[in-house]
């Protein structure tokens, strides 16, 4: 087709009608957003000559995406999560805001309600047969660099199969396995014992991977550990660290790797270190401080409210 009708008053009036812009009922914000997005899609259909067959394949795809619960998985794959971080980074920079540990994406697999522990937590239930013990620790610091006793460190990661508890298709994991909330001790320190996570891959038979295949892309993430860090007077930090040496460090399908978020991992084999941690064999150790940033005009400008799985 070569006809161009998008700019006609018929189509432009129709877009306003379909977006409810001819009436007062409903939400002005929803109308504004829907009008813009639907207009952009109509324009793309015309510019790219998107066929009816292609359009209906897309509609069927959205149904599958929802039915499989993968909209939140596709989002980082298409870079939206990273884009929101880029916008926040740019906003901070334009305001001259002093930032701490770099932010990076939350991902779709957080669960609220994890057990709360003081200072130290064991994250894993000891059942992963391939688990290599990890000790990770550090100090939570405020915007002025001072330790923050009482800061809340929420941590979650996957097992050696790349599966997260509560989202594990094998059903093997106990509730909240590898998920805890740790309250920083009197020196502002947090510490946990767990196992070194492996990389994550999108469900290979799912709609996210199906679309990535069409783009000639893989759906894998380097091994990583997620954090939310909160403390009085500070913005909530959402971040992750990567496991150093993972071959996908700079090839993450979700684009979450950032400079400053790949701390060194040390293999400890000496008896003194093993004993000092109450362990019976070699382990990996990561030290990583988490530095928060101050509220801006009394406001947390980086907190994100999104639907999250909550388990009692
Ligand atoms: C996805 C999975 C993750 O573990 C993560 O941290 C980010 C994104 C995903 O499946 O899209
Ligand atoms: Fe993750």
Entry keywords:
312 residues, alpha/beta, Protocatechuate 3,4-Dioxygenase, subunit A, 2 domains, 6-stranded mixed beta sheet, 5-stranded mixed beta sheet, 15 strands, 27% helix, binds 3,4-dihydroxybenzoic acid, binds fe (iii) ion, Intradiol_RC_Dioxygenase, aromatic hydrocarbons catabolism, Intradiol_dOase_core, metal-binding
Total domains, how many?
2
- Largest sheet, if any? 6 strands, mixed
Order of helices and strands: HHHHHEEEEEEEEHEEEEHEEE
Annotated CATH homologous superfamily of the largest domain: Aromatic compound dioxygenase
Summarize the entry for a quick read:
By secondary structure, the protein is α/β, with parallel strands linked by helices. It is built from seven helices and 15 strands. The protein folds into two domains: 9-73, no CATH class; 79-310, Protocatechuate 3,4-Dioxygenase, subunit A, CATH 2.60.130.10.
Q: Overview of this structure, please?
A:
- There is one protein chain.
- This protein has 2 domains: about 60 residues, no CATH class; about 230 residues, Aromatic compound dioxygenase (Protocatechuate 3,4-Dioxygenase, subunit A), CATH 2.60.130.
- Strands 3, 4, 7, 12, 13 and 14 form a 6-stranded mixed β-sheet that branches. A 5-stranded mixed β-sheet has the order 2-6-5-10-11, with no helix packed on it.
- By secondary structure, the chain is α/β, with parallel strands linked by helices.
- Helices cover about 25% and strands about 20% of the residues.
- The chain binds 3,4-dihydroxybenzoic acid and fe (iii) ion.
- The site of fe (iii) ion (FE) has 5 residues, from strand 10.
